[in-house]
Amino acid sequence: MKMRNRREPNNPKPQEWLASELSEMRIADYKPFNMVDGEGVRCSLYVSGCKFLCPGCYNKVAQSFHYGQVYDDDLEEQIMEDLAQPYVQGITFLGGEPFLNTQVTLRLAKKIRKEFGNTKDIWSWTGYTWDELMQESLDKLELLSLIDILVDGRFLESKKDLTLQFRGSSNQRIIDVQRSLKEDKVHIWDKLIK
Known about the structure:
By secondary structure, this protein is α/β, with parallel strands linked by helices. Helices cover 26% and strands 18% of the residues.
């Protein structure tokens, strides 16, 4: 039996990991009014649970689906109230893995679009690559359809670079989701600093 190299993240088959089977709807953290998780002043929602288990993950505690508090209506109301502030540009989903917690992230993204339309942007980090997401479950594809900017790909220690804008390793991309979906081709965010 071949041992997997523990210096590499897990790699799922298409639709192998489903939020409906994994998520416990738990939140590792919520940080309003920060300027590190994307462009402008943002609210950041860190969901609990990730199966990629990237070695060197900066938020290892959030890999557990059991960690943190259960997402509830009170937190959702607080997030919506914080997003309503005129100086807040949008929200960022991080983790854990936002696409393995669609019961939370999809619900919130739909509410944001209903309440604010496109006046607030939605960013998300994911361990999935764009091509992997294109083969994924309907809930993941629906979440992707509501996102503006996606930072895709697993964190790879061998490609770690602390000078990169909004990324931890050079394999990760910052994708303009709406343009990419419209043109059926990956388009990198036009504000990327090289």
